[in-house]
Each structure stands twice: as structure tokens, then as C-alpha cells.
Amino acid sequence: MSQSTPTTPLGPSDYPLSVNHLEMLRTPTGKALSDLTMDAVVSGEVSGDDLRIAPETLLLQAQLADASDRPQLASNFRRAAEMTAIPDAEVLEMYNALRPRASSKERLLAIAERLEGHYGAAESGALVREAVEVYERRNLLARPEQD
Q1: Is residue 146 predicted with pLDDT exceeding 90?
Q2: Alpha-helical segments (H) within the chain
Q3: Is-cis flag, bond preceding 28, omega within 30?
Q4: Gap between the Cα atoms of 133 and 110, Å rounded
Q5: How many angstroms from the chain centroid is the CA of residue 10?
Q6: What is the DSSP string of 85-107?
Q7: Are 142 and 101 in contact (CB under 8 A)?
Q8: Is the pLDDT of residue 143 over 90?
Q9: d(CA 111, CA 109)
Q10: Local structure of residue 111 (DSSP, 8 states)
């Protein structure tokens, strides 16, 4: 991730970042948000990649959520930051695999291992592992096909 973490921790009064700290927000390609203008779009200076959220922005949002005593929201932002590195098609495949009774324990554990090993997405992998435990307890794993 190319953007550095601010030296001073962010707090609730820093929200929203787009008003209070616009200088901290950049696109995944490194453009400042102020560079995203209609003229830049028309001239071709702005691409679809410029319109995606940068993982650094999500981590800043996680910092704000933590400072506002919203740990679950902060975790969601950290997982979202991890997932920016995963191709959309693979995210959709994982989403479908996590539907109740859609996958076996082995398939879900393989997804967790891929998240952690290939993408370095430790928080996302941990969430999938937690889902495996809950699905197992609630009988929501895929059922073996009967002949």
C-alpha cells in the first residue's frame, strides 16, 4: 500500500475525511481526489481504476471507526482494505461459496488459506474460518449428495 499512515492518530472529529483531510485521500493509482474532475474524465486522464477506493482510505476509515468505539465497523473496513487486492470475479466466487449449504468445510478452509497465503488477507481468512465454525455448529455446510 503506497500511502503512509498519518503520524497523528485520527479521531472522531476528523470525520468525514473528504471534508477534514482531503489531502490524505488518493485513488489506487495515486491521484488526489481533487484531480477527479469532469474535465479529467472527458480528456481520458481518469480511468476506472481511479474510481475505485484505495486500501489506504479504508484503513483510515478503520482508524476513525476504532476511535469512535465501533470495533466491528473498523474490522469491516480492514477486511475491505485486504479485499481490494482480490480480483472481482474471485470475490464473487467467495461470496457465493459462503452462502449457507453452498460449500463443504474443506472448500471454505481452502478459501481461508488462499486469502491468508496468496493475498495476505489475515482478517478476511479469519472471518471465513469463523464462518466454518458457525456453519458446522448450525448444520449449514453443504450436505453430501445422496445416491
Answers
A1: no
A2: 17-20, 38-43, 55-67, 71-83, 88-97, 105-117, 122-137
A3: no
A4: 14
A5: 20
A6: TS-HHHHHHHHHHTSTTSS-HHH
A7: yes
A8: no
A9: 5
A10: H
Give the phi and the psi of residue 26 in degrees, each rounded to 5: -135, 160
Alpha carbon distance 123, 11 (integer Å): 23
Task: Give the pTM.
Answer: 0.83
Query: In this structure, what is the dihedral angle of CA atoms 37, 20, 73, 77, given to the nearest 10 degrees?
Result: 50
Average pLDDT, integer, range 44-70: 94
Predicted confidence at residue 147, as pLDDT, reads: 41
Q: Please give the pLDDT value at position 9.
A: 87
**Distance in Å from the first CA to the final CA of the chain:** 50
The residue type at 146? Q
Q: Which SS3 state, helix, strand or coil, does residue 139 take?
A: coil
Q: Residue written as cell 497465503? A: 117
Which contacts (CB < 8 Å, 24+ apart) does range 50-55 have? 51/27, 52/27, 52/28, 52/84, 53/28, 53/80, 53/84, 54/1, 54/3, 54/25, 54/26, 54/27, 54/28, 54/84, 55/1, 55/28, 55/81, 55/82, 55/84, 55/85
